[in-house]
Amino acid sequence: MLVANNIVEVIQLMLAPGLMISACGLLLLGVNNKYSLVVNRIRLLNDEKRKILEQSGKSETALADNVRLESISIQLEKLVHRVKLVKRAVQNYTIAVALFILTSILIGMSYVFEIKNIHYFITIIFLTGMLLVLAGALFAAYETKKGYEIITLEVEAE
């Protein structure tokens, strides 16, 4: 049976992974917002491309339209790459959340069932979650860099 001090200690130990779950939730919120914006931009560019191609079927395609189509194609290719980076960030953050939840559960179970020598395993799971958060942040940062490159293309095309 757990005494009051042990219960407080268990709760304190379980809070660290809980804080990381909350932090990952905020990161996921931001990355999902980026995902929505990138997908929306892809749809808008595809729409514009479709309209230009419809107009070119009715008359000769102007040089400006050809330049714009080329710019759209390059941007779409880069945007698809951005979506993949965002997806990887989301996957890393989501798996990290699962590992932090598992960490909290194992901490609680180790005290309730008095499991000895599980703290190494719990630490490894927690650290793996932290590495996944780092990987997600790196994917998100790289995606931001790619986003800047796409904006540069858009500005140069005009």
Summarize the structure.
By secondary structure, the protein is mainly alpha-helical. The protein is 91% helix and 0% strand.
How are the SSEs placed, and which strands pair?
Layout lengths: L3 H55 L4 H50 L6 H39 L1
Helix pairs in contact: 1-2, 1-3, 2-3
Overview features:
single chain; rod-shaped; mainly alpha; 158 residues; 3 helices
Descriptive report:
By secondary structure, the chain is mainly α. The chain has one domain (4-157). It has three helices and no strands. The model has no long low-confidence stretch (mean pLDDT 90). It has helices at 4-58, 63-112, 119-157.
Order of helices and strands: HHH
Beta content: under 5%
Give the overall average pLDDT.
Answer: 90
Return Rg in Å. Answer: 24 Å
The shape is rod-shaped
> Could you give the count of β-strands?
0
Q: Ranges with pLDDT <50 over ≥5 residues?
A: none
Instruction: State the helicity in percent bands.
Output: over 70%
Distance between the termini: 72 Å
Number of domains: 1
Number of H- or I-type helical stretches? 3
Sheet of most strands: none
Decide which structural class fits the backbone. Answer: mainly alpha
